[in-house]
Fold this sequence. Notes:
alpha/beta
Amino acid sequence: MHKNKILQELVKKKVKSKIISIEKFTEVCLYGKFGYYNNSNVIGKKGDFITSPEISQLFGDIIGLFILYHWKIKLKKKFNFYELGPGKGTLLIDLLNITKKFNDFQKSINIYLVEKNIKLIEDQKSNILSFNSKPKKISWLKNFSKKNQYPSIIFANEFFDCFPVRQFFKKNQIWYEKMIEIKYNESLIKFKDIIINDKKTLKQLNQYKNSEILEISNSRDKYFDKICKHISKLGGMIIVIDYGYRSRPGYFTLQSVYNNKRSNVLDNIGKQDITSLVDFNKLIDLGKKNNLKIEHFSSQREFLLNNGIKERENKILKVANNKQRIMVQKGVKRIIDKKDMGNLFKVLVLSKWN
Length: 354
Ligand SMILES: C[S@@+](CC[C@H](N)C(=O)[O-])C[C@H]1O[C@@H](n2cnc3c(N)ncnc32)[C@H](O)[C@@H]1O
């Protein structure tokens, strides 16, 4: 039933079959009327994935202290804090909590949460309200947009991996695109490789020298370019944390997760998360093109260790009971784990201080 509704949205007109790009397919499966981000319980133990702020409060503590430090030395005035895809609002709560003694910082912050998922907006509102019955003024936006002339600090954790990608590969000097064929009447859906003839696409692909397998997200690049332009004009900083790479991996990274387990991208349509690794080289290029300074690029592990997560952990452990100690240590270990999140996740910080 659910699958048919999505297929209907994909095919629209009354045709027996249709071939669409993976980008279009993902767009509708994630953001369409019946899509994943409009319906599901996506984050947390019962959802499909659990993120760093949900695993350890120290993640939000370190991000909060990093932002506070840069605000103190570079801004010291009113600013906007935009969080892109804030999930359950946990990072914001931890950030406000760790900076609560700094009245001048707290008075200077305008908060904008950019979120598409209606259910998550409700969660964010009730979680923030239960943390503080008199919360700071927070505005919700469906899309990133300029609200005033103040500088901004823009934060995004596991946001850019949600953007749809197109997949290309080269065989015997010929470029193909991996597409999806839908046979509506048979409710059948399968991958289909198509030779690319379009000159504009070929020109774009041929810019990537020595690459025979490519994933390109035009919508991600456009979104990132927009926030770079915003910072370039009004000043501030962008912090992006995501699964990703600088050197292209040489294989397709599109993946789907259903009930906390890897699944087939074409199964459970509209009910599962679909992501791909973020090409940080592309984000860095866009930052440079917009005259932003690359303040930092490293693994999540390196970033958190360099910014004092161990020192913060030791401080908390001194006043923690046994149960809390185990929880804190387990959480920190997981988000800095060399073999897992610590290395797979990358942190990019771009800035322009006007
Ligand atoms: C994987 S979750 C990460 C949540 C949170 N940042 C965290 O670390 O717990 C992705 C978040 O981005 C939101 N999201 C995904 N694509 C979006 C878009 N294009 N615009 C606004 N929000 C989006 C989702 O609804 C969700 O809140």
